[in-house]
Amino acid sequence: MRSDRPLRIAYLAYRGNPYSGGQGVYTRHLTKQLVDLGHEVTVFGGQPYPILDEGVDFVPVPSLDLYREPDPFRVPWPNEFKTRTDLLEFAIMCTAGFPEPLTFSLRCRKVLQERLGDFDVVHDNQCLGTGMLGMIEDGWPLLTTLHHPITVDRQLELEHAGFFRRLTLRRWYGFLRMQGRVVRQLPRIITVSQSSRRDISAQMGVDINRMDVVPVGVDESQFFPMPEVKRVPGRLMTTASADVPLKGLVPLLEAVAKVRTERHAELVVIGKPRRQTKVNATIERLGLEDAVTFVSGVSQERIRELYAEAEVAVVPSLYEGFSLPAVEAMASGVPLVATTGGALPEVSGTDGETALLVPPGDPGALAGAILRMLASPELRARIGAAGRKRALEKFTWKATAIGTAEQYRITIAEHQAQKEAQQKAAAK
User: Which of 111, 369, 381, 407 has CB 3.0 to 4.6 Å from 356, enough for a Cys bridge?
Assistant: First the structure.
C-alpha cells in the first residue's frame, strides 16, 4: 500500500453521545479531520448515536438501548428481542452488569463480516469487547483507542461508596475483566497521554511498547476568547459531564465554600447532577444553593459565552486520562486552576505559567489557588494568555488526525507482514 494513499476507515463507537463524556467529542472531531485529510470514514455507532459532520458516513448498530432517558434500565417489549445478542444484553442488565461493550462488539463483528474488503483498517474507540478478537480472526487490521484505564473509575467509585453500593458497583464494572483480557491481545493501542500509557500498562497488564500516544485536541473554531463579553466578578466555571467521584465536584464545592468566607464567588457547572447524590447533599450541607448553578442542554454558543463570563475555570478531577475541559478553557483564554490528577499536568503545563496546579482531593489547596487567581487581574491575564497559546500550539484535532492516520498505516503494515510470515510458514 502506498504511504500516501487515502485510507478507508471503519470507526467503531459503542456510545457516541457528544454531551456525555469525551468519547463522543473525540469521535466527531477526529472523523471530521480524517475526512478533511482525504480519508474515507464510516462510523459504526450505537445509541446514543453520535453527531457527525458532513462527509462522514454513518451505519447505525442499534442495541436495545436499555439506558435511554427518560427510562433507564427499561424492560423491552417482547417483539424487540430479535437475536441471541438481544437476549444476552437484557440478561446482563438484569444481573446489574453493563452489557454494551460486549454486545456492541458482537453486533459489529457480524456487520463487518458482510463488508470484508470495504475497509483498510478498523478503529475501535474503547469498546474492547470480545467481538474485537473475532474481527482480528476474520482478517481485519485493528487498533483501539484507550483513553484511560477504567480501573481508575472503579477504584474511586468504590472508595466513595457505601457497603451495598459497593456490591452493585463491582457487578456493574464486571465488563472490565473482559476489556482487560481483550486489550492485552490487541496488536496496537493508541492512548491520549503518557500518564494514561503508564497507567494502562500498570493496571491492565498491557505491554507498554504496544501503545503509542496521540493527544486529543480542541476545536479552535468553537473555543476562543470573547473580549466583548464582560466577565462576571467571582464567577468560577467547571465542566462535569458525569456526576461521579472521579470528577472531583465534592472537593470543589468544599473549596467554593472556603473561598466564600473571604470573598464573593459563584460556580457554574456545565453538567447535570443525579438525584440523591453526594454532590446535592454537599451543596445543601454547605449552604451553597444560591451559589451553584448547573447548566445542561444549552448550545455551543452559550457554552462559549459561559467561558467568556468566567473569571476562572476549574478542573478539580481526581484523575484524568487527558481532559478536554482543560484545553477548552485554555483555548478560550480563561485562566485555569487544575489538579495534578492523572494527565492534567501534561495537558495544562507548568504550574504558575499556564495554570495553577494543586493536589487532587484537597479543598484547601484548591481554595487557595482560586483565591490567588481571583485576587489578581494581572495573574489571570498572564495565565489566560499563556494557556491559550499552549492549547493552540500543542492540541489541535488536525494534529490528532495526522497522528492517528500514521498509526493506521503502521497497523496495516504490521498486519500485512504478519500475514506474509504466516503464508511463508504454511508453505514450508
Answer: 369
